[in-house]
Amino acid sequence: MLQELLGAAAAVAAGAAVYLGAAARVVKQYERGVVLRLGRLHGDVRAPGLTLVIPAVDRLRKVNLQIVTMPIPGQEGITRDNVTVRVDAVVYFRVVDAAAAIINVEDYRFAVSQMAQTSLRSIIGKSELDDLLSNREKLNEGLELMIDSPAVGWGVQIDRVEIKDVSLPDTMKRSMARQAEADRERRARIINADAELQASKKLAEAAKEMSEQPAALQLRLLQTVVAVAAEKNSTLVLPFPVELLRFLEKAQQPAQPVQPVQPVQPVQPMQPVQPVEPVEPMQPVEPMQQVQAGQPGQPGQPAQQVQAVQREQAAQPNQEAQPVQQERAAQTNQQARAAQQAQAMQQEPSGLMEELVEESLSRQQPG
User: What is the rounded CA–CA span in Å between residue 214 and residue 31?
Assistant: First the structure.
């Protein structure tokens, strides 16, 4: 009898162990258990740990509450400014209601993936290329709102959505590269122009300072020569200042005492020119009367000798008048030139004085 009781107890214990083995379930810390009894939701969501269900009656489904990282496949679309792009994104979500994730949707992972793809295509069509490239934060927020709105009823919470990559056609990449190059060149030209403006102002100030000290220009020339001579790959042509040559030439000549410049005497005004008295015309000489031969008291002369004497007497007064006329004409010309010089001195006295001073200095300097 005792053996029968022990055998029955052992059988009951074995059946209980089999039942417990079939009914016991372990729910992990990051999971929640949803029990469906005969197809209906039974009780609350099972907490982590050991839980029991009725074998063949209850069915336990575990839901992972960890954050899921789901990549969205690349979606091709046309932006608002008619540019074909291919955009990839990533969705971060987690389950906040295990029962709703099991009851309300067949496969919440697949549902979230499809919703993310359609939302991404919608965002591409509503945005421009510049927004996709530079204003991604705003697009991420809009994409998150579009996915999170239907996911709330599925017991899923969208934590974050990020646009991962934007692929452009090769032609668009070249166009953007040319645009960026042109913009860089424009900014470089503006910077160069600004630098030239500042340099011109500084050079003007330097020229003003050098104009006050001419030796500074020579020093600047020597500094430039030193800077160029540091590189031994060029031929240097040194301009030699003419002032230095003149200085050396003067140093070789013996020193001569400098004669004082005599003051220029003022020019006395010329007396007015007296009018020239007209020359009285010479009276014609009466021809000598021919001596007739045979008159009493006068010796007789031949006719040819008488004519020669008359010609000599007619030419003698003309020869005496020519030197007088030439002397008077020379005096008249000299008086006219003196009057012109006096008039010129009255009009430009300073210029004539300077010319006289320079002429006197040039005569006094040696060589």
Answer: 92
Residue 334: how many other CB atoms lie within 10 Å: 11
d(CA 152, CA 146): 11
Strand, helix or coil at 34? strand
H or E element at residue 99: helix 98-103
Give me 239's structure tokens: 């301009």
6 pLDDT tier (thresholds 50, 70, 90): confident
Amino acid code (one letter) for 258 = V
Rounded distance between C-alpha atoms, residue 58 and residue 36, angstroms: 6
> How far is Cα 173 from Cα 308, in angstroms, rounded to an integer?
128
Q: pTM for this one?
A: 0.49
**Sequence-ordered alpha helix ranges (H) in 213-302:** 214-229, 242-252
Per the CB < 8 A criterion, the answer to whether 124 and 204 are in contact is no
- Asked if 161 contacts 140 with a C-beta cutoff of 8 angstroms, the reply is yes
**46 secondary structure, DSSP code:** B
One-letter amino acid for residue 249 of the chain = E
Query: Directed axis angle between helix 303-347 and helix 349-364, to 10°?
Result: 100
Radius of gyration, CA atoms only, the chain: 66
Distance CA 78, CA 88 (A): 14
Reduced to 3 states, what is the DSSP secondary structure of residue 107? coil
Joined together, the tokens standing for residue 105 give 């949707």
Q: How far apart are the first and last CA of the chain?
A: 165
Query: What is the rounded distance in angstroms from the CA atom of residue 122 to the CA atom of residue 145?
Result: 12
* 158, containing H or E segment: strand 156-167
The token pair at 95 is 């389950």
pLDDT category, 5, cuts 50, 70, 90? Answer: confident
